Amino acid sequence: MIRLSITLLIHVLITATFLEVASKRETDPCWAYGTKIEGNSQWVQCNFCSFVSRGGITRHKHHLVGDTAQVAKCSRVQAEVKAFFKEDFDKKKQAKEAMNSIPHFDNVFDLDEEVDEDKLNT
Ligand SMILES: [Zn+2]
């Protein structure tokens, strides 16, 4: 019974965290610098250079930060905007590492669109 309670507790914890991440995504500050394209929920047009990222708001953020070869770098992004989201990525990475210390947490994020970030970090 104790084991079951702990499992339940972890499940609730994970669900709460997951929902928080999901709701955060909708109000991502990055939307101030990108415009959703009608009919394509994963397509975001850059407000600085009109480049279209086809991997959602996270991909658009990578476009602004320019930290990966998988997305074209933004040529017109303001330095402070770039620095802001770079810091955001660093914080996220730290949070992810902390989450990974919980057993089986990875399973929850298998469905996450940001899975490819892992590849970038290796
Ligand atoms: Zn751009």
Automatic annotation (TrEMBL):
GO terms for molecular function: DNA binding; zinc ion binding. Keywords: Metal-binding, Signal, Zinc, Zinc-finger. It comes from the Eukaryota. The keyword Chloroplast does not apply. This is BED-type domain-containing protein. Residues 25-81 form the BED-type domain. Residues 1-24 form the signal peptide. It comes from Lactuca virosa. PROSITE patterns: ZF_BED (PS50808). The keyword tRNA processing does not apply.
